[in-house]
Amino acid sequence: MAQRNNWLRGTTIRKSGPSTSNNTRTNTPQLPSTSKTIYGGGVQDPSGRTTEYFSMDDKCPICDTDRYLKPHLRLLVSPCYHRLCESCIDRLYTLGPAPCPTCNTIQRKLGYTPQTFEDLTVEREVAVRRRIAKEFNKRREDFPDLRSYNDYLEEVEEIAFNLINDIDVAETEARIARYRQENAALIKLNQQREEEYQRYLQEQEEMERQERELRAQELRRIEEEEREEREKGKQAIIDKLETSDKDAARLVAKSRMEAQRRASARAASSSSISFSQSSAHLLRTRATQSAVVPDVPHIPLQDDYYAYDDMFKMQETYHDPVSDAVRRDKEGIMRAGGYQVNQAWERALRFAVAGLDIAPLSGMPTPPAEPMAVDPEGPADVVMASA
Amino acid sequence: MTASLTPDSQPVASSSSQRQPLYEASTQYRYWRFSPEQLAHMRSTLNVDAVSAIRDAFEADSPGSSSNVSFLTAEEEHLLVKLYVGKISQLCGHFRFPEEVEATAVTYLKRFYLKNTVMDWHPKNVMLTALFLATKTTNHPIALESYASHIPKTSPSDVLDLEFLVAQSLGFDFAVWHPHKALWGIWLDVQTLPGISIEDLSKAYEAAHGHVRAARLTDAEFIYTPSQIALACFSLASPTLASAWARAKFPSSAHPPVLDLLGPIKEIIIRDGSPPDVEAVREVDRRLRLCKNPEKIPGTNVYIKKQQEQERKAEEKRLRKAEAARIAMEEGDPFGSELVKKAVEDLDDDDDDD
């Protein structure tokens, strides 16, 4: 019934089960909040917005209010990761800090944050990791070798794991404090570096935005000028037609030509503008290029064999019935794999002259050691010839 | 190998005498070139070793049984191999394989029996494997199933079982320089000589090609280079053209030394270049059935004993390996520390013999 009457109230509530992907609102709630408190925190995306988790099955665990009864229901998460609806928070924490109704740890109203992830363990993990990353911000450059950097990363991971899974929390916290104390200067420095980098990125973005704006302005101005000129030209033609007694068609053609000349001059000047404006872009690409390692071409065979090239002279063509079929093959079916008769000929010629003057062995010279020969320790059934 | 790493040392800088000729860098030149005496010695020692090993196997099976077995001699073994070299040509004709495949398979078979004896591995089986291997190494592959189905009484496993053994015996030297290729080159290059009539030349080429095929049955390829064999074959067909071409190749000397080599090669081809007498080979094969290595015949006592021995060894090795791995795991580093790694290497460096 209630859902059927939604159109009367002008709101549309999409029915979405837990399986649909439409579980999160696109940004901060469109629905008016019942509470006057503004809750901070939550997981922010790079643009600084928090995306709140939202489901048709939401239900406050204390007052049992659900979205069916109260479409404006908003559930918030405590630092102990238990959910509570806004009205319950208002009711429980009117007199300052009070125990969480689920786990009895003392919480404050402002400790509650919007929920981002459906799974609260994920929510918790993200929060822990953010906290850890703030202080454990060493970089690869801060270590003498990769091994120590990897050890450091492993330590960080262990701390994060302990905090997420509540293992030796006290000891882990002590470890963090010790680390903080020992590396205070470096942490600060890295934070500054990070900030600087962020600022740099922002500046870049800002510059780009300004450039775009300038360009758009320029385009608008040019368009305006063009329009004005067209108007003026039209007016001039009319005026001339009124006052002059020359041929009307010729007059029109003449003014058209002038207009065209002006337009081409304008195009030339605007192209120079666009060139100067793309310089920033050029600069950026150049910066990325300088980071690329020069690509040295790989030459697989750098040997230096004597290939009997002075022993024969290749002819343009030979009388060769064997390769007739290939040479007559106009469609290139036989040459598809890159086969070329000339190369086959060259190979054959090389074979014909290779080792022509090598005298045969005689007597009993010692045979050369064979690197790939059968292992004498191997299978005993291969009888070795070498005596 | 004279592989220079600097790309700017171009051939211009170094004279041809300093650089290694292409053929002399090949495995064929380095490992498969022998003198006739060496060949004979290799074959006879191989035969003697094999006979004594097989005699031991017979004795181990049932004492005294080896006294009335007549083992094959090196010459008889060679005769049998020669017969199967001829069989390869027949098979290649049946499959319509190119000459490259045929020549390579023949070389593989001959090289295999320089390292093994026919009393261990019958050439009938090795021939099939050598041919199959040659189709692959010369880039004319054929499916194993269709290959085996075209040969009577042969299953794919018969071909594949020996493949690694054959490859291992060849020392994995699969690239072969063939005389028929060199002969093609001679045929092309002779055309550049002045005053050549194509009819005479093509007639000589055809005849020479027949001689190259005959040369495959001989030991020429172990003693001489492919170009020398091709020139000798060409010389058998047309002595005048061959010597004219050889002189043109060595314009500086009045009498190129290669011309002196042609005589012995021709002699070998004419003497050994015909298929062996089938009756004689049949006799050899009948005797081979009696003197085969019993360790290689499934079902005999020695064979079973040998299998058990091998299994025991493999089991032992597996246990040792597992023990080493367990120790490594306990030490904390699953890949083992330096010391443990060394120990494992000592235990086991032949992983490929199964």
UniProtKB/TrEMBL annotation, chain A:
The keyword Electron transport does not apply. Pfam families: MAT1 (PF06391), zf-C3HC4_5 (PF17121). Residues 153-236 form a coiled coil. Residues 1-18 have a biased composition (Polar residues). GO terms for biological process: nucleotide-excision repair; regulation of transcription by RNA polymerase II. Residues 60-104 form the RING-type domain. Keywords: Coiled coil, Kinase, Metal-binding, Nucleus, Transferase, Zinc, Zinc-finger. GO terms for molecular function: cyclin-dependent protein serine/threonine kinase activator activity; kinase activity; zinc ion binding. GO terms for cellular component: transcription factor TFIIK complex. The keyword Secreted does not apply. It is found in: Nucleus. Residues 1-46 are annotated as: Disordered. Residues 19-28 have a biased composition (Low complexity). This is RNA polymerase II transcription factor B subunit 3. It comes from Lentinus tigrinus ALCF2SS1-6.
From TrEMBL, chain B:
Residues 1-21, 331-354 are annotated as: Disordered. Keywords: Cyclin. Gene3D superfamilies: Cyclin-like. CDD domains: CYCLIN_CCNH_rpt1 (cd20524), CYCLIN_CCNH_rpt2 (cd20525). Residues 86-168 form the Cyclin-like domain. GO terms for biological process: regulation of transcription by RNA polymerase II. One of its GO terms (molecular function) is cyclin-dependent protein serine/threonine kinase regulator activity. Belongs to the cyclin family. This is Cyclin-like protein. It comes from Lentinus tigrinus ALCF2SS1-6.
